[in-house]
């Protein structure tokens, strides 16, 4: 299994260039088709409520609409240029799509038809019109989502991968979805955070990885569940990991809080690129 | 046990190793009024021992049949599990879990059906009907598609099957035809250098199961890939949500994912 179809959200901000560079690197290594998507927003509704517009003279409304459309077009061009620069530097090609950003539907539909979605932690439509969290998309897409931090430079295939494991369906999902990354990595470490001190996997985890021909180190951490986010951050630093793989608990906020709010805390501000699955 | 041979054959084609899992039925306490409190210690002991003996015998038979079938193709191992929780955990640490339709033959107080296991295991589940006979699994793969999260999931999980199959088709059964999406499908499939038929058919949601069953027969599918929904009543009507009906009486081997 590998990824053949990758979509990447690109906006007009500078932060998008890092994400583009990483996406181009990954697509090149897997021989995948990279599709950049730009979320087009319509007229900035929050500035001019529909009723407010009604009191403006007709030509002014038209001028405002035209100006807004032109600004969005410009933003789309800037975004495409950002991806083009990254692709040309690597001698790679890409596809470009402008999709409707006024609801999550178009982006979700695109993500469901791709093998991997690459997103920032917060997805903003052009000119800051709307904001969608990557979590929402990862829960709805039915596939893996790579959330790339806006800070730091992430280039090339991740070399040291850390997998956060818990005996849950979400962890299993994330592990299965991560194989193209795991196959290409140099080092794979699994961390099991277990206050009771029992790893709970009885060597089955190691055996599963071995059957994939993947040597894996398993670390059992005895910290309390409450600090799982901290434990993971510490471990990422200690291992100098450049990818974290974890399941997303989407069923309820309550459950997530019980589980330590790990996903929420890490998703908002991931220290390294994060592969999330639900 | 009749389903072992085609499964071993499939594993051989996928280059996978196979673990046979036997779930030991618990002593059926509920079959005894008041949990057997009326029985003497001796009687109870006897009943428990008799149950254990029957289970041991069944396990030995199952193991023998499994290992004999598995020997033909590849190294296989055998595990005996005592609880449903152990089964779920092992399923989570496997790439694919294969079960018969309906409730798993485990008895006792805790039962689990194929559908529940499919929701819990976080991976694809292959449901193989008992009446399969000598037919293969996964040579003619039919993938259901309706654009939902679950069908996106099922599709992704089906890639190893899609790549190993002789023929692949996609069944897009929707209330209204969606030519744009059909074209997107073809385009996406073309990237995998796979010849794929797109069988698009407009049909009302409540007719989707019938349409699908007919397609399975007409096209001669030996593996149907579909999404498994966790909230049946809401999305049961939608294609892919027909999974509950298919789970109890699959027309052919079924690959489901949630």
Explained architecture:
The complex is a heterodimer of chains A (278) and B (258). By secondary structure, chain A is of the alpha/beta class. Chain A folds into two domains: 5-147, Rossmann fold (3-Layer(aba) Sandwich); 160-277, 3-Layer(aba) Sandwich (Rossmann fold), CATH 3.40.50. Chain A has eleven helices and twelve strands. In chain A, the strands form two sheets. Chain A has a ten-stranded mixed beta sheet, with helices on both faces. Chain A has a two-stranded antiparallel ribbon with strand order 5-6. The longest helix of chain A has 33 residues, at 58-90. The model of chain A has no long low-confidence stretch (mean pLDDT 86). Chain B has a domain at 130-257: Rossmann fold, CATH 3.40.50. Chain B has a seven-stranded mixed beta sheet, with helices on both faces. A two-stranded parallel ribbon of chain B has the order 1-2. Chain B has ten helices and nine strands. Chain B has helices at 4-14, 41-71, 84-92, 114-120, 149-157, 159-164, 179-190, 208-219, 232-235, 243-248; strands at residues 18-23, 76-81, 97-99, 125-127, 140-144, 167-174, 196-202, 223-227, 254-257. Chain B has 258 residues and is α/β, with parallel strands linked by helices.
